[in-house]
Amino acid sequence: MVNTFFLFCGCVDQASVAVVEKWGRFLRLADPGLHFFNPLAGECVAGSLTTRVQSLDVRVETKTKDNVFVQLICTIQYRVVKENADDAFYELQNPQQQIQAYVFDVVRAIVPRMNLDDLFEQKNDVAKAVLEELEKVMADYGYSIEHILMVDIIPDAAVRKAMNDINAAQRLQLASVYKGEAEKILMVKKAEAEAEAKYLSGVGIAKQRQAITDGLRENILNFSHSVSGTSAKEVMDLIMVTQYFDTIKELGDGSKNTTIFIPHGPGYVKDISEQIRDGMMQASSSNV
After folding, report:
1. Within the chain, which residue ranges are assigned CATH 3.30.479.30?
2. Residues 6 or more apart whose Cβ sits within 8 Å of residue 204
3. Which CATH class is domain 54-155?
4. Which is more confident, 105 or 210?
5. Nearest 5°: phi and psi at 88?
6. DSSP per residue over 158-197, as a string?
7. For residue range 12-39, what is the model confidence (pLDDT) as tens digits?
């Protein structure tokens, strides 16, 4: 921008360049600072251009190879080349419209050759192709293309919903697989725990029975040595009667209003002792 102080003097702002004409023809470029002009000789400032980086957003609608309509939002950063500012001033009347037209042309030539998934993965390649084309064209008009950013890719709303549904279904399927594996592991661990518990329970019962047998054997031997003239059978019968009455006492103390019917009588105690003795004899014979 040029500020005129008086008839023969002008000032060009920083980050700007002024175009000076003489009798309607281009004369020179004026850098930022103070400049003197001679209006009587036909010199005047025709206009000025900023040399700052400018940004232009371009929205392009096109379709992909798999017939999906998408909108691409491109951001083009460009600036006027200071040395060629006269070309930028005289050659193009609307540089933004020219840049937009070339972006449309390149994008609509590249994107229809790509699938939607490939477009998302290779959007930088599309931006690079647009940059190369614009650099070649706009350089002749005094413009430099600094950067091109592919800001966003927006598919049709129905396509976005379908993509989200596919993604959700895949995640649900993966979650089901993990859930099944977790349930399988829990079942295996539960079965292993039950097997280990049964094994330990069996070991405990075997040790308990061994301890009972050892205790009975020791009691029989001690009683036989202490009371002369008694046989092992008599001692065993006495121990069985004692344990029988202890068991009845425990049932009576531990029952909670529960009626338990059990056979009772001396003959029953004799039958129990005979069954235990027969079992121990069979066990002894089988071990031999």
Report:
1. 54-155
2. none
3. alpha beta
4. 105
5. -65, -30
6. HHHHHHHHHHHHHHHHHHHHHHHHHHHHHHHHHHHHHHHH
7. 888 899 999 888 889 889 888 888 888 8
Which stretch of DSSP H or E encloses residue 35?
strand 33-36
Write down the residue that tokens 């330990």 correspond to: 200
Contact call for residues 88 and 47 (beta carbons, < 8 A): no
CA distance 83 to 80: 9
Q: Which residues contact 38 (CB under 8 A, 6 or more apart)?
A: 8
Helix then strand then coil, in percent of the chain rounded to 5, is: 60, 25, 15
Under 8 Å between Cβ of 50 and 15: yes
pTM: 0.54
Q: For strand 143-155 and strand 25-30, is the pairing parallel, antiparallel, or unpaired?
A: unpaired
Q: Which amino acid is at 267?
A: G
**What is the number of alpha carbons within 13 Å of residue 219 lying toward its C-beta?**
16
